[in-house]
Design goal:
By secondary structure, the protein is of the alpha+beta class. Helices cover about 45% and strands about 15% of the residues. The protein contains 8 helices and 12 strands. The strands form 3 sheets. The protein has a 5-stranded mixed sheet, with no helix packed on it. Strands 4-10-9-6-7 form a 5-stranded mixed sheet. Strand 6 and strand 7 form a beta hairpin. Helix 2 runs antiparallel to helix 3 and helix 3 runs antiparallel to helix 4. It starts with a helix and ends with a strand. The C terminus is likely disordered.
Length: about 400
């Protein structure tokens, strides 16, 4: 209701301003004014100076943005290929900023210098082969360099040598969460199909596949530092995107197909929490959370917990109403810590078998008494009645 009242007030305000302009026009009746639609020298000068004003705004806002929001950049990359991705981004930023600074300055300067003047005719050039060659060939070389560098970086990231020591992990996306599956001791992921999803087998792993017998499903992803991890990505429902920002990794999860991304983590979670930039970010976030907590406590609500840095797997595609909440914690351990965490994890086959046993026991114990006409019940004696199991 409040929103409707605000809209009505804004509409009435617009009508009032429109009526005031009409009244102002009426008060100017009889006074000399230029109703011509042709720009005069005054109009051209105003437009020229406005172009300079916009140029100043553009540069000031750009510089302000660098200082105001520059600290939001992710900072230290946590994967082997991360520095290459960051270098590519910085080179692109520098090229764009340099070209933007020159072209925008020339554009607005020429708009002012060659503004219209009464009695002055514009000079028209049909073509200039030399200029056209310059502004065509220069971007060609610059963009070709960026593309080749990007292609080289992408190839280095995605290439997995057959003889390379890697581990295979599946990331399974669905609205609105993630699951991970480890390939077990054989380092081979078993087959899976959405049609096989049932009970605890939430990823549809094929229990008849020999390679699936040692697969392990988890809701929190742990990966060892220094080991290259090949991620196999699947989606149960719609298009998702596996985004791991601190590892500079992202790949779409497409229903009906398996995509892949690989990287080698280089910074453990504990070490990243001690990174200077991360410490500063955590401090700033907790200042904001403390302020919000004070407001919540004043309203009689529970305060927010302090923020602690964690690597996260996010969805970078708008996949539905709870897209913003689709995330999974990633922990980078030392190899020793990783093995200690993994050894107690039960396989998917074990979980499925335990579920079957539990259901069988439940069916066996689900019995109800069936009274017979001959059964006599009084205040002191209850004869045992036959029982029938309900399946």
């Amino acid at each position: 209701m409040t929103s409707l009242l605000v809209i009505i007030v804004l509409l009435l305000l617009a009508v009032a301003i429109w009526q005031m302009t009409k009244i102002f026009d009426l008060t100017q009746a009889g006074k000399s004014k230029d109703d011509s639609q042709v720009a005069n020298n005054k109009d051209n000068n105003i437009q020229g100076y406005m172009m300079f004003g916009f140029l100043a705004f553009l540069y000031i806002f750009t510089i302000y943005g660098m200082f105001e929001w520059g600290h939001l950049i992710l900072g230290t990359p946590a994967s082997e290929h991360g520095p290459d991705v960051d270098n590519l981004m910085w080179i692109t930023y520098i090229v764009i900023f340099f070209v933007q600074a020159i072209t925008q300055a020339l554009l607005h300067y020429f708009a002012f210098k060659y503004r219209g003047e009464e009695g002055k005719k514009a000079v028209y050039f049909a073509d200039n082969d030399k200029l056209e060659f310059i502004w065509t060939i220069v971007p060609v070389f610059v963009l070709a360099g960026l593309i080749l560098y990007g292609l080289y970086t992408w190839t280095e990231i995605m290439f997995v040598d057959e003889d390379e020591d890697v581990m295979y992990v599946e990331l399974y996306a669905k609205q609105f969460g993630w699951e991970a599956r480890y390939s077990g001791k054989d380092n081979v992921l078993g087959k899976a199909n959405v049609r096989l999803i049932e009970g605890v087998n939430t990823m549809g792993v094929d229990m008849s596949d020999p390679n699936a017998q040692d697969d392990i499903a988890v809701s929190e992803l742990h990966i060892p530092k220094g080991t290259k991890v090949v991620f196999k990505l699947r989606s149960q429902d719609v298009l998702h995107s596996a985004y791991m920002p601190h590892f500079r990794a992202q790949m779409n999860c497409v229903p009906g197909m398996v995509t892949q991304f690989a990287f080698r983590p280089t910074v453990t979670t504990d070490d990243m929490r001690e990174d200077e930039a991360i410490v500063t970010k955590v401090h700033n976030i907790n200042k904001i959370r403390a302020k919000k907590s004070a407001e919540l406590v004043a309203k009689g609500q529970s305060p927010l917990d302090p923020y602690t840095f964690d690597y996260l797997l996010l969805c970078n595609k708008i996949c539905g109403a709870s897209h913003y909440n689709m995330q999974m914690k990633i922990v980078v351990d030392t190899p020793k810590e990783y093995q200690a965490w993994l050894k107690d994890k039960a396989t998917i086959v074990t979980a499925v078998n335990e579920e079957k046993k539990a259901k069988a026991a439940e069916n066996t114990s689900a019995i109800i008494p069936v009274a017979t006409p001959e059964q006599k019940v009084d205040s002191t004696v209850v004869k045992t009645a036959p029982v029938v199991a309900v399946n």
